[in-house]
C-alpha cells in the first residue's frame, strides 16, 4: 500500500493519497482545488489511476478539487449520503465500503462538525488507519457553530463511533494548525483536552465558548462545494 499525506498551507488542510502501490489504483481524501496540479503530477509520476476522490464533508475553508479531478481523470467523486452536494458520482452510507484492487475504505457517519461529516477507516496491519476529517483533530475537535453543526451530536460521534476503535488505531485528521501530522486513538483519548469532559452537556458548553472567527472564504467555498467543487456554476 502507498500512503502520502499532502498539505495545503493556506487552509491547513491535509489531503491523503492512498493507492494499492505504484502503478495501481488510487483514491484521494479531501483534495484541495489549488493543489490540483500537484495531484495530477503525482498520478503521472507514480503511474496511478485515480478511482475515487472523496470529501469527508462539505468544506467551508477551501474549494474541493473533486469536480476538476473528475474532469481530468474520469474518477468517481464521493460524498456521504447525508451531503446535499450536487454533481457527485456516488454517495456512501454508514458502513459502506469503497474498494481499490487491494485497499478498501469504510465510511463511518460522524455528524457534529457538520450534519454530513464522515470518517473513513482503512483496515491495515499492524494497526487500522482512521481518516477523521474535521470530527477528531490532534488534541482538538472540529468546530460545531455553522453548517448544521451540533456539539452534542459531535460528542456522541466521538464517544460512540470514533473512540470505540483500538488505542493503536492511527488517526489522520483533516487539518492541523500546530505542525502535528498524525496521532492514535489512545493518545487522543488520554491527552485531547476536549475529550476530558464528563458528558455531552459539558462538551457542548466547552464548544459554545470557543468564539472562533468565521472561515475567510466560506461564502465562496460552501456554494462551490455544494456544486461538487465547480466554482463556475456555484450560485
Automatic annotation (TrEMBL):
Record's keyword terms, sorted: Metal-binding
Boundaries of every Metallo-beta-lactamase domain copy: 12-175
GO BP: any one term: hydrogen sulfide metabolic process
Designated name of the protein: Glyoxylase, beta-lactamase superfamily II
SUPFAM superfamilies per the UniProt record, alphabetical: Metallo-hydrolase/oxidoreductase
Native source organism of the sequence: Microbulbifer donghaiensis
Superkingdom: Bacteria
Alphabetized GO MF terms: metal ion binding; sulfur dioxygenase activity
Metal-binding recorded as keyword: yes
